[in-house]
Amino acid sequence: xxxxxxxxxxxxxxxxxxxxxxxxxxxGLSSGANASALEKEIGPEQFPxxxxxxxxxxxxxxxYCNSVLQALYFCRPFREKVLAYKxxxxxxxxxxxxxxxxxxxxxxxxxxxxxxxxxxxxxxxxKENELFDNYMQQDAHEFLNYLLNTIADLxxxxxxxxxxxxxxxxxxxxxxxxxSSGTGGGQGEEGEKTQxxxxxxIFQGTLTNETRxxxxxxxxxxxxxxxxxxxxxxxxxxxxxxxxxxxxxxTLCSEYKYYCEQCRSKQEAQKRMRVKKLPMILALHLKRxxxxxxxxRYTKLSYRVVFPLELRLFNTSGxxxxxxxxxxxxxxxxxxxxxxxxxxxxxxxxxxxxxxxxDDDIVEKIDAQAIEEFYGLTxxxxxxxxxxxxxxxxxxx
Length: 397
Ligand SMILES: [Zn+2]
What we know:
Layout: H1 2-14, H2 28-42, E1 53-56, H3 63-73, H4 76-87, H5 95-107, E2 113-116, H6 119-128, H7 140-172, H8 198-203, E3 205-213, E4 219-226, E5 229-232, E6 237-238, H9 239-247, E7 250-252, E8 258-260, E9 265-267, E10 269-277, E11 281-287, E12 289-292, E13 297-300, E14 305-306, E15 310-312, E16 326-337, E17 344-351, E18 354-359, E19 362-366, E20 385-395
Parallel strand pairs: 1-2, 5-11, 6-14
Antiparallel strand pairs: 3-4, 3-10, 7-10, 8-9, 11-20, 12-13, 15-16, 16-17, 16-20, 17-18, 18-19
Helix pairs in contact: 3-7, 4-5, 5-6
The protein binds zinc ion.
Residues 213, 215-216, 218, 260, 262-263, 267 line the site of zinc ion.
């Protein structure tokens, strides 16, 4: 109990409102001390074999990136695929080769704890996307989205060029074109568009958007894939409540009427969105940044939203393939501060049964009870909070 209080006090003092993360840390001394303290605290017998807990140096407001990278590193299926990519024949530098180098450098360290500068990854990121080519605070969710989509695109491009090479060889050998069936992991229905990569295998789920015409009762449904789900937040609620809100029935009327194919005219309709295929890792983004017209800028909703350690989705469709999937919380990207372009990001992760907090170059073990501190605030007066922003839930099967 005493320890928990220490941790909480430590957190409170670290994230004061003015603590914007401009700390380009070169503080090798303090982080070294911190690292060995962590190793001691876990203890030699308890320290998981083949596991490494490394903080990441901040290169000037790059905590949005560090926090997401740490969360992804502790999404085991993702980490394994990125490490496996490293062993494949060298390709020209990309965001994925930089990521696999970084993950590999963490995973192959002699020491169990320490600090690594993700220098190559950051400079590649700044080179590839002008949005991130500055020293301003960025949105961690935007970065996650960009990273996953970029990796998926790279893998699809590689798959295609391999196919092209193989087809070329077949032609040279007089085998004819013969169709490209059998290659690639695509679903086949829409050809190239649905080509699956391991990013999709891990993060992709499917939503089904059902619309029921209130005139003829005809139901039409349209499926839509997602790599993460963005849900609205409300004060003093839970993730379950947010997901219910996400799947609530919405009535389309007046100017938003729906064109019914059966009636061949615009009709009032009811619409609802449900999960049809549950992903292996469910990334839930809480929409905490809201544009306020009167302020003409984004403000943070620090609402207290409870996220459970175990989660089962109930907003699934009747024909869902795996509706009973049970999820465990494995990582949370936390936003500290009062707005999207100010403040700081940290990450809490679960590893081998205990919880760790990654704050750029600092890594600490925390008590499971301390997670409650990241639900948000019950009072609406203060906007400054350390609150869960992106949740990563991993399926048990
Ligand atoms: Zn109709």
